[in-house]
Amino acid sequence: MEKRRIYLASPTMNGSERGYIEEAFATNWIAPLGPNVNEFEKELAAYVGITHAAALTSGTAAIHLALKAIGIRQGDIVFCSSLTFSATCNPIIYEGGIPVFIDSENDSWNMDPEALRKAFGKYPNAKAVLLVHLYGTPAKLKEIMDICKEYKVPLIEDAAESLGATYHGKQTGTFGSFGIYSFNGNKIITTSGGGMLVSKDGAAIEKARFWATQAREKEIHYEHKEIGYNYRMSNIVAGIGRGQLLSLDEFIEQKKSIYDTYKKAFEDIKDITMNPIPKQCEANYWLSCITLNKDSKVKPLDIMMALEEENIESRPIWKPMHLQPVFKEYDFIAKSEVFGTAEDIFNRGVCLPSDIKNTGEDMKKIIGIIRALFNC
Ligand SMILES: *Cc1c(COP(=O)(O)O)cnc(C)c1O
């Protein structure tokens, strides 16, 4: 018999999503927009503690509209975390901007404030900072916000992976001028696909909604003064989101328990280190990751292959953007001229299966396979 696959992170439905969808069917609010969209925006904004939110088709669309709202144009430099998914920086290119990639630090794996300061030294006219809270762990927000204030540059937080995570008790995504969340299939909550743009600036969110609905002017006929996009979330999709949001706290607890289980299980193996979570924050533990010591005989690929043999999904750490062929012409700034932290984490890291539906048995099996590679 084919073994049941153990996933990295797959959708976990709680059942309540159907109620919202059925209501949409019953009232024929299949499209456009509708009450689920409005309510999902309000409920998510209330959850993270911000005043305004726009529900969109994806997290990528949310990043795109955040850059537009800030006014990024042809030739503008945007400082962007290098250790991330390409969706973070692609929208900079959509607007004709120039990404300059910033290295990571070792305490949270996120944007290194020292490297960011160095980047401002080299490019004092940069127009925005776009940082990521990778794998659900908040970046060094205080240090980075201080630098942004000093240079009077707006901050965009890509909190696609970190919904529910807090820094000094405040939700990621609510510190910068704009924050974005993703409800893609493998994120901590999912709508099958979707995203949210949040801000304290109500007028900016209103403008984002306007761009997201084809930039239709308020006329009876179709009047257009700007280029628009078809980026708005549907009422069906938003219904799934409303149901999912009810489980977010529980999901974070379950993800934390997965992280704690791995941490305990590998405590005695000196070659394995869990992804670091700084004291000043509460992560959402979206993915549990490990790095292997440089001289470890077991390599990340050995772990991924051994797991795959048992039909268990794992994956490499994101390959840094400054190492991607498509972005090779753009600059990269690191604290050190000779050593890149993001590249080092990529070379030594693995994302372990972190699916909320992993049973105790699944966890034992995964841990057993990895321990066996270290002869433990
Ligand atoms: C998933 C993800 C995105 C993109 O979100 P989509 O909803 O898939 O467009 C952006 N940034 C990061 C860091 C992500 O993990």
From TrEMBL:
GO BP term, pick one: polysaccharide biosynthetic process
Active site residues per record: 187
One Pfam family from the record: DegT_DnrJ_EryC1
Cofactor(s) needed by this chain: pyridoxal 5'-phosphate
GO molecular function: pyridoxal phosphate binding; transaminase activity
Top-level taxon: Bacteria
Record-linked CDD domains: AHBA_syn (cd00616)
Transferase in keyword set: yes
Modified residues (N6-(pyridoxal phosphate)lysine): 187
Keyword list, A-Z: Aminotransferase, Pyridoxal phosphate, Transferase
Entry-linked Gene3D superfamilies: Aspartate Aminotransferase, domain 1, Type I PLP-dependent aspartate aminotransferase-like (Major domain)
InterPro entries associated with the record: DegT/StrS_aminotransferase, PyrdxlP-dep_Trfase, PyrdxlP-dep_Trfase_major, PyrdxlP-dep_Trfase_small
UniProt cross-references to PANTHER family, sorted A to Z: DTDP-4-AMINO-4,6-DIDEOXYGALACTOSE TRANSAMINASE (PTHR30244:SF34), TRANSAMINASE (PTHR30244)
UniProt family annotation: Belongs to the DegT/DnrJ/EryC1 family.
Name listed for the protein in its UniProt record: Aminotransferase class I/II-fold pyridoxal phosphate-dependent enzyme
Organism in which the protein naturally occurs: Mobilitalea sibirica
